[in-house]
Amino acid sequence: MKKMKTKNVVMVALLSALYLIVYMLSGALVALFGAFGHAISPGLCALLSGSIFVFMSRKVGKFGQFTIMTAILMIIFSIMGAGYLPWIITSMVGAIIADLIASRGNKPAIWKVAIASGILHIGQAWGSIVPSWFFVESYKQEWIERGMEAADMEEKAAATQGMMGVLATAVVFVLAFAGVYLGWLILKKHLSKSED
Amino acid sequence: MKFLEVNPIVLVLINIVSPTMYIFTKASYLQFFLLGFAACLLILMGSFKRLFVLLGIYGVVYAIFETSTGLGVFNSWTSYLVVIIEFVPCLVLASLLISKYSSSQLLSALEGVHLPRTVVIAATITIKYIPAFRREFGYIKESMRLRGIPFTIRRPLRSFKFFIVPQLFRCASLTEEVTAAGLVKGINAPGRRSSYYSQRFRVSDALVLAVFAGGLAAGFVI
Predict the structure, then answer these.
(1) Is B94 touching A (CB cutoff 8 A)?
(2) Predicted TM-score (pTM) of this structure
(3) How far is B74 from chain A (nearest CA, A)?
(4) A17/B125 touch (CB, cutoff 8 Å), yes or no
(5) Which of A61, B12, B69, B148 has the fewest CB atoms nearer than 10 Å to its CB?
(6) B184 CB near a chain A CB, below 8 Å?
(7) What integer pLDDT is reported at residue A53 of this predicted model?
(8) Which residue of B75, B82, B126 is in closest CB contact with A17?
């Protein structure tokens, strides 16, 4: 495993800035799709940012790249007041697994990068799915007290519970996997040119 | 007039803990506590313009929410209003962090909590370059318009490619520049980095945190 140099850290930081913009853009888009849309929002972000992951794996390709990227995101979201402890924990675990899959060798196969992106984004999605499995009753009670109809609340909670949570996880993985292949399709020509 | 200086880490800590507390305490209490707490902090720090922004946004969104629920409308959109109500105080405190403190002050404060240096430097670079990339998107759009290449939903892959590829390769060229500038400033020098803006933890910081913790603890009782 090669150690990250200063230049690699700077590139990861700059790519993280780009990823954050895509993240915010997809967050705004997904607001149109209601509760289930919110549950799969990391998947939409992954679909649009697959090219960033392909570029990073080819231009940096060092162990720790995904972990540093996720840590940067978590710090910035925490500073903005959007940090959420379960989300931070699941995202960091996802990022470390992604590094173990696709950052150990030079120029990993695209399918490995795709799986790594899938796992990383599942980690992000689980930040909202997992707490809804454990704290759902207090969550529902709170919203009903605020005036939401019990039936509407059930529908909202159902978007991340039980099989819907599993479905959301699968959708996120598929979108992330497709995003990396889409990124590879876009960048293949450019990357081979820059390597020549 | 400014009565209080707060270590940026205190604000970061408040913003990290606050959203998580919505799981454990009653949200209707917590949202009003956070509003009051943020308003007091803004007054003490002499940030009156932000105080008006906070109260203005909060007031308008709260009024829309109350009117909607009064009319019997409660759906996904009104629940988004509640999310805004809950997070506006945190967002205002975050804007305080970006506007009142320079990146050197933030860097100095973050180094004080012994986060890995690599992560602290990387996060500072990311914060600094987000506006730069947003500007670049504008230039790309303008360049596409001048060359007669439309950004169209009918050819989404092609349009997306025109947006993302220049940005990625701009990252590669920027990396060289930023690394060179960082190396000149001793970014990889071994040893503890000293700072002109040394951020110490003061008694006032402890008091702010004590009031915050007390308010959160009250949420478990009420």
Answers:
(1) yes
(2) 0.80
(3) 6
(4) yes
(5) B148
(6) no
(7) 95
(8) B126
Length of chain A: 196
d(CA B82, CA A143): 10
Residue A80 has its nearest CB partner, among B91, B137, B157, at B91
User: At residue B183, does pLDDT exceed 70?
Assistant: yes
For B122, which of A9, A48, A138 is closest by C-beta distance? A9
How far apart (Å, rounded) are the C-alpha atoms in residues B181 and B165?
25
SS3 A8: helix
Q: What is the pLDDT of residues A98-121, one digit of tens each?
A: 999 998 877 889 999 999 999 999
Tokens of A94: 């996802």
At residue A179's C-alpha, the angle toward residues A177 and A183, to 5°, is 125
Q: CB–CB of A14 and B126 under 8 A?
A: yes
B172 close to A (CB below 8 A): yes
Tokens of A173: 């993985």
Instruction: Answer whether A48's CB lies under 8 Å from B157's CB.
Output: no
State ipTM: 0.82
Closest partner residue to A6 (CB to CB) among B12, B18, B188 is B188
**What is the C-alpha to C-alpha distance for residues B198 and B191, in angstroms, rounded to an integer?**
16
Helix/strand/coil (H/E/C) assignment for every residue in chain B: CCCCCCCHHHHHHHHHHHHHHHHHCCHHHHHHHHHHHHHHHHHHCCCHHHHHHHHHHHHHHHHHHHHHHHCCCCCHHHHHHHHHHHHHHHHHHHHHHHHHCCHHHHHHHHHHCCCCHHHHHHHHHHHHHHHHHHHHHHHHHHHHHHCCCCCCCCCHHHHHHHHHHHHHHHHHHHHHHHHHHHHHCCCCCCCCCCCCCCCCCCHHHHHHHHHHHHHHHHHHHC
